[in-house]
Amino acid sequence: MSSKPLKQIHLAAHFPGVNNTTVWSDPEAGSHIEFSSFAHFARTAERAKFDFLFLAEGLRLREQGGHIYDLDVVGRPDTFTILAALAAVTEHLGLAGTINSTFNEPYEVARQFASLDHLSGGRSAWNVVTSWDAFTGENFRRGGFLPQEERYSRAKEFLATAGELLDAWHGDEIVADQASGVFLRDAKAGSFVHTGQHFDIHGQFDVPRSPQGRPVIFQAGDSEEGREFAAAGADAIFSRYAALDTGQAFYADVKGRLAKYGRRSDQLLILPAATFVLGDTDADAEERARHVRRAQVSGATALKHLEFVWNRDLSSYDPEGPLPDVDPDVGDDHISKGRAQVRMYRDPLATAREWRELAAANNWSIRDLVIHTGNRQTFVGSPATVARTINEFVQADASDGFILVPHITPGGLDEFADTVVPLLQEQGVFRTEYEGPTLRHHLGLAHPDDERAERAAS
């Protein structure tokens, strides 16, 4: 009986952006604005043969109790600008960015991604997200315009419309002339017409077909609508399930939705975000992880996190003291604006009861509770232990790989690249060289034109 072939692991790197992830107080912590930080991070990821670098996007600084949320990064440059600049200092690394479908237009976004794909030689990726809150929308003319229940409807049509624009140059409509550059063979090349519920546009798309045809599409929703949206048209979906059992359940659920859209299991990758702490030994790593976690969750951070659930000003409470006796305010006016943190907890009253019981049973302060119930490190151990665990997760179909989020920028990825990656390469589950020029090559995804030809032939 032949054994199941080993899956190849996909690894990517996420440049973090808030200090409940990063440790700002560490002497090695660097800038989140200077280009040298992004360049160092990207070069490390490429040296380690990672698939791509990922940048999230915030369209408005959060507020807490009417004040700027002081745990956010202020002044990070625009995502497209950073990715375009990184294209010039890397050769193989994929360049993925979050771009909102609620407050942008398909023509503009399609043009930007097609341009990035040309500039990078076929390495662009788009994390399609939605936003329903009017607070963020106040920065745009559509502020408060889109009801929450319509956000996926608009996102689906947005993605489809952008795809139509990118495909407007499909086929043999252009030829290259070395003297004068690229010119049209057919005057209709690039022409588009789209009439739908959210968009009614027609015209000429002015960026020729890019190396990938269209960017690799990522999706991050975990709701029923989000999973279905990813199954219908995404190339990869982010996941927050980093435990083996929950990861396997999510993996099976999403992959199981693909067949009804005429898609195979290998046409959608499952990539959870993952943090890590390494040490010379497992015990050393565990000790370092405890230190890192306490540095990530300062007293001020703990109170801010508790306010997401309590929906009250808790600044008068001692973070090293007991949890509040007062219950959460379940009203619609949330103390946290700009990022729906409170909605992470569907039933704040039940969450408060559970947390009080945990704190009482373990003699935890507010800070202790947040440290233990918040996002803890996914992989902790020696390089050999972390490499083995990552491989076990992937081979057990809990994921297709991981998007790593270090707690130090820009150098926090260096140790992983130098110690864990070589072990994965020795096991034959991670590349030693890039096998193709585009991000689709790295991820094992077919070119859209090839997929179109395959569907036509079937």
Tell me the layout of helices and strands.
Blueprint: E1 10-14, H1 35-47, E2 52-55, E3 63-64, E4 67-68, H2 79-87, E5 94-100, H3 106-120, E6 124-129, H4 134-137, H5 151-166, E7 174-177, E8 181-184, E9 191-195, E10 200-204, E11 216-219, H6 224-233, E12 236-239, H7 244-255, E13 269-274, E14 276-278, H8 282-296, H9 299-310, E15 336-337, H10 348-362, H11 366-373, E16 379-381, H12 383-395, E17 401-404, H13 414-426, H14 439-443, H15 448-457
Helix pairs in contact: 2-3, 3-5, 9-11, 12-13
What is the CATH-assigned architecture of the largest domain? Answer: Alpha-Beta Barrel
- The fraction of residues assigned to DSSP E strands is 15-25%
In the CATH scheme, the class of the largest domain would be Alpha Beta
The count of β-strands is 17
Instruction: Write down the overall geometry.
Output: globular
Mean pLDDT: 88
Largest sheet data: 8 strands, parallel, barrel
Structural class: alpha/beta
Poorly predicted runs of 5 or more residues: 172-187
Number of domains: 2
DSSP helix fraction? 25-40%
Organism: Streptomyces mangrovisoli
GO molecular function: monooxygenase activity; oxidoreductase activity, acting on paired donors, with incorporation or reduction of molecular oxygen
Pfam families: Bac_luciferase
Protein name: F420-dependent methylene-tetrahydromethanopterin reductase
Protein model, in words:
This protein is of the alpha/beta class. The chain has 15 helices and 17 strands. Strand 7 and strand 8 form a beta hairpin. About 3% of the residues have low confidence.
